[in-house]
Design brief:
The complex is a heterodimer of chains A (347) and B (270). Chain A is mainly α. Chain A has 15 helices and 4 strands. A two-stranded antiparallel sheet of chain A has the order 1-4. Chain A has a two-stranded antiparallel ribbon with strand order 2-3. Chain A is globular, with a radius of gyration of 21 Å. Chain B is an alpha/beta fold and 270 residues long. In chain B, helix 3 runs parallel beside helix 6 and helix 5 crosses helix 6 (155-168). The longest helix of chain B is centred in the middle third of the chain and has 21 residues, at 120-140. Chains A and B meet through helix 1, helix 8, helix 9, helix 10 and helix 11 of A and helix 2, helix 3, helix 4 and helix 5 of B.
Chain lengths: 347, 270
């Protein structure tokens, strides 16, 4: 039960973590993340790296779709922009990887701002279609701008190295991707403690009254698109380094839909939702694969029979969330927390 | 000097003339009420003042400056605050965040500072929080609900939060669109008191649309009556109340005796 968290200043009441308990849990989380590589095997580290990359992309999309209310199906294409920028810089200039990652994010931001222009005129489904168009145009460019993207053959990228260590396996790459993810999440959380984040939410809830209250809609909509694409660019750059090669097939429209599903399943307009959504969408297919391997012990050629079922079950899980938990996994967490607010005294 | 001057404004949608050469002068430091039957153009006039509609003819002057060409956010930045007829709070935010949003035009935090929550972001957020607590929450007696999501609040409180949001802007002109509609007597009295306090303590000029005649007559200094997009009467509340044209607009063309006779005639027929 949470009791008495008195504050002496308003600054303390505005803090990101308002109680000691929250700080303590955040410390525990960081310690767990730091300790994880020493106990987990390569396979689990691989999964965590993949989850982290997805969480960054999902967080960006959540800023745009969950908080600002602008539906976008272009997130994977923006990831592609980041990935190709990183690949080109790595292979042509040999600049250090932090520079490449930042450059990838910045280029993606620029592309995102242009792709966001239709949002000044249309919203909802129309905007979704407009972003699909942007996505197709970008995929076309990835495929046909041979001199930069190497067309359908794709590009190979050398792994980045830090302090003389090549970050080529999940056990070393972990130390790049997880800290970046933590920082990106903290930045996004900070944003929603300030006037800019509030402006985003206001645009989502009632754009007209937001405008009458002094919020410049075009400016903030584009800013949201830019931030979202920045996150996508970072995720794409990390993706390129992590897998060591990219091609136009790496960032299909399906992946944008996957990221949007992660936002919805996790919880729109919630940072925790971005994390949970990213974890859910990345890990559940793996868990289902485990389940089928397990059934294989009792059943002959289970993998051949059940593999298609895996996709169906995954799809049903998503539909189930839309039906029974429209506020996403984050809402389940909130409900648990509410229960323990009064625990052990029941009302 | 007048705070707001609506000068011969005309506004039409297709064939409907919502406003027809309407001129309204709002004196500084007073409460001006705008009354009239439904569809008379009161809210259209509000929208023309806050910049949501662009009139086809006429000008809107705020503190002597022509603001006809400015967009909504620019007008808000000049100090024109507003509440809405059907509550327009942001349902996904807490009371505190809604009210803080009202202070948007008074803050300058940029994206970079906001992301790191350092420097200006930290300074400004703390500062507006203190101001809101001191000036707005204490004043409107809503400090106990600051962390509540607005969607869960009763109607009367939501209206009060909306007023709080408009006040957080520290407006020089406040447009109130039906501030007491749908309230019970007690809530109405509270709201009337708040509006008078806003006028007297904050020195804010108020223009309000209201259907509650008791309230309009009690608190306003000046009344304008709109009907079919035209100003049909204006002046002190008591003068307007006695104006035959106003009574006609509200009650219909017949005078009371013919109305009574008609009622009696119908009951005899029945």
């Amino acid at each position: 039960m949470r009791i008495g968290s008195p504050k002496e200043t308003y600054a303390a009441d505005e803090a990101l973590f308002r109680t000691r308990t929250q700080w303590a849990w955040f410390g525990v989380l960081l310690a767990a993340l730091a300790g994880f590589p020493f106990v987990a095997n390569l396979y689990w580290l691989y999964l965590v790296c993949l989850v982290s990359i997805n969480v960054i992309a999902v967080t960006g999309l959540n800023v745009l779709t969950g908080y600002t209310g602008q539906v976008s199906l272009g997130q994977a294409a923006f990831m592609g922009v980041g990935a190709y920028t990183v690949a080109w810089l790595e292979n042509h200039t040999g600049s250090p990887f932090p520079v490449n990652l930042l450059a990838g994010s910045v280029v993606a931001t620029g592309v995102g701002l242009i792709a966001g222009l239709p949002s000044l005129r249309v919203k909802g489904l129309y905007l979704a279609i407009a972003t699909i168009a942007a996505s197709f145009i970008l995929l076309f460019i990835f495929k046909n701008w041979e001199s930069v993207t190497n067309g359908t053959r794709g590009i190979g990228i050398e792994p980045p190295s830090a302090f003389g260590v090549a970050l080529e396996n999940p056990d070393t790459f972990y130390w790049l991707v997880v800290p970046v993810t933590v920082v990106m999440l903290l930045l996004a959380s900070n944003l929603f403690r300030t006037r800019i984040g509030r402006a985003f939410i206001a645009i989502r809830d009632r754009d007209i009254s937001a405008s009458v209250l002094g919020i410049d809609l075009p400016r903030y909509k584009l800013m949201s698109f830019g931030i979202s694409a920045f996150y996508a660019g970072m995720a794409g750059g990390l993706y390129a380094y992590f897998f060591g090669s990219i091609n136009p097939e790496s960032f299909p429209l399906l992946m944008s839909i996957f990221l949007l599903a992660a936002v919805i399943v996790g919880g729109m307009g919630s940072m925790l939702g971005s994390i949970l959504g990213g974890i859910f969408m990345t890990l559940v297919p793996e868990l289902l694969r485990y389940g089928i391997d397990f059934l294989g012990l009792f059943m002959e050629n289970a993998s051949a029979v059940l593999s298609p079922v895996r996709t169906v079950v995954f799809g049903l899980l998503i539909v189930g969330f839309l039906l029974f938990e429209p506020l996403g996994l984050a809402e389940i967490w909130r409900r648990i927390r509410r229960f323990f607010h009064l625990w052990p005294f029941r009302t | 000097m007048s705070t707001l001057e609506v000068d011969n404004v005309s506004l039409s949608f297709g064939g409907v003339n919502a406003l027809n050469a309407v001129s309204v002068t709002v004196e500084a430091g007073g409460i001006t009420a705008l009354i009239g039957p439904n569809g008379a153009g009161k809210t259209s006039l509000f929208n023309a003042v806050s910049g949501f509609y662009r009139p086809q003819a006429g000008r809107v002057l705020f503190e002597g400056r022509d603001i006809s060409a400015l967009r909504c956010p620019q007008r808000a930045a000049l100090g024109i605050g507003r509440t809405f007829q059907n509550i327009a709070l942001f349902r996904g935010m807490t009371v505190l965040d809604n009210v803080k949003l009202g202070a948007h035009v008074r803050t300058r935090t940029g994206l970079f500072s906001a992301l790191w929550y350092l420097g200006r972001a930290r300074r400004e957020e703390t500062q507006i929080r203190e101001q809101i607590e001191r000036e707005v929450f204490d004043f409107l007696e809503i400090d106990h609900i600051r962390r509540h999501p607005v969607a869960a609040l009763p109607y009367g409180l939501q209206k009060r939060v909306e007023l709080a949001r408009a006040l957080a802007m520290r407006p020089r002109l406040l447009l109130l669109d039906e501030p007491v509609a749908g309230m019970n007597r007690e809530e109405k009295e509270d709201m009337a008191r708040f509006i008078l306090d806003v006028k007297e303590q904050w020195g804010v000029t108020i223009l309000m649309v209201e259907h509650d005649m008791g309230m309009v007559m009690d608190i306003s200094d000046q009344v304008y009556v709109l009907n079919f997009g035209q100003v049909i009467a204006s002046g002190r509340p008591e003068t307007v109340q006695a104006n035959p044209e106003v009574i006609e607009a509200y009650l219909g063309t017949d005078d009371m005796t013919t109305l009574r006779r008609r009622l009696r005639g119908e009951s005899e027929a029945a």
